[in-house]
Amino acid sequence: MAQAFQKIYTKITAITKATCSLKADGVGNDELATVNGKLAQVVRIMGNEVTLQVFEGTEGIPTNAEVIFLGKAPSLKVSEQLAGRFFNAFGDPIDGGPAIEGEEVEIGGPSVNPVRRKQPSELIATGIAGIDLNNTLVSGQKIPFFADPDQPYNQVMANVALRAKADKIILGGMGLTNDDYLYFKNVFNNAGVLDRIVSFVNTTENPPVERLLIPDMALTAAEYFAVEKNQKVLVLLTDMTSYADALAIVSNRMDQIPSKDSMPGSLYSDLAKIYEKAVQFPAGGSITIIAVTTLSGGDITHAIPDNTGYITEGQLFLRRDSDVGKVIVDPFRSLSRLKQLVAGKKTREDHAQVMNAAVRLYADAANAKTKLENGFDLTNYDERALDFAKDYSKQLLAIDVNIDTTQMLDVAWSLFAEHFKPEEVNIKQELVEKYWQNKA
């Protein structure tokens, strides 16, 4: 829009650390503006009183600063040219490549009408056995990783991006360190998979409030490939705790009364707006969302994971297994509520039985470990269960295990045969006869 037709004001009535307010007419929600040359966005309209969120902060802005409304909300140009590129929170390239040519689409649109959705039924294989065996993911699903800040969750996300059987991977990085950003860039480059990955990145050097745009940018790109190209799209968001912290920064500086754990009262709807973009379309395209939520001191009752758990269809819980010295996908605290839609249907017939048997035997090992810690004698079965648990963690639950769904089932059968008798495993006899691996 030419500047002659833009709305320009020069009288700011109130300024906080992140926002400024003024009287203006004909302004829309989420509309972009510049305040003293700094990019801003409308976050509240009450009558003709408009509040703008200034992305870089309001330091140095005088009350007579020039405010120019741009007449449009944040948008992204979408086309096949997005593939293989890195962008900032505003959709501008940060990889030194040319600007994107394509249709300009406003970000943050509504989620898909339920009548246009299809029940998820396609397997999303990540190549990580701790997920694919016990917590199988389904296209159109939304699920978070819960992890402590010191765990290698970004490495896990990069591995999922490399291994997942999807047409496009959209990475949304919020509050990444420069090391993390370079890690993602180098991993994707070296693996030769950039042609199917689109990345939107906000680093710790960028203003925190810019993180609020990253999920919408990522999901706008995902919707283009899923709707227009009928592709299977996997969206990886890390870290949603950084996103929620940015929400809290803006909320607190607008003098809104905080809710639980200093989070804004709108936290549930803000998170749901993102996660509900996960969808399986009847035409074949889909958007699957895997997001990292870092925990504060392992506190799963904090407002961020607590609200996330109500919205999503399960969770993947990372923890360090001290017995094997590896980070594993915890089979007790992880859950994929949609796994029954594909386990044994899109995977091998024995999948569900093997999964249940392995977790039950792992639980027996946990009971044996408790007995040992309390000074009780262990039975022969207890000792075998403990040995099984170590091998199960190393060969299947560890996040560095990269095998396909058929191989993981074969490994599980091998572990059963090594540590137990067929009758102790409690699997249907016809499956035992077909898959039990006899040991010499």
What report would you give on this structure?
There is one protein chain. The protein is of the alpha/beta class. It folds into three domains: 3-69, Elongation Factor Tu (Ef-tu), domain 3, CATH 2.40.30.20; 75-339, Rossmann fold (3-Layer(aba) Sandwich); 351-435, no CATH class. The protein contains twelve helices and 21 strands. The strands form four sheets. Strands 9, 13, 14, 15, 16, 17, 18, 19, 20 and 21 form a ten-stranded mixed β-sheet that branches. Strands 1-7-4-5-6-3-2 form a seven-stranded antiparallel β-sheet, with no helix packed on it. Helix 2 (153-163) runs parallel beside helix 3 (178-191), helix 6 crosses helix 7 and helix 9 (380-397) packs antiparallel against helix 10. The radius of gyration is 25 Å and the shape is elongated. The mean pLDDT is 90.
Give the number of helices.
12
Largest sheet: 10 strands, mixed
SS content category = alpha/beta
If you consult CATH, what is the topology of the largest domain?
Rossmann fold
Q: What is the level 1 CATH name of the largest domain? A: Alpha Beta
CATH architectural designation of the largest domain: 3-Layer(aba) Sandwich
What is the C-alpha radius of gyration, as a whole number of Å?
25 Å
What separation lies between the terminal Cα atoms? 78 Å
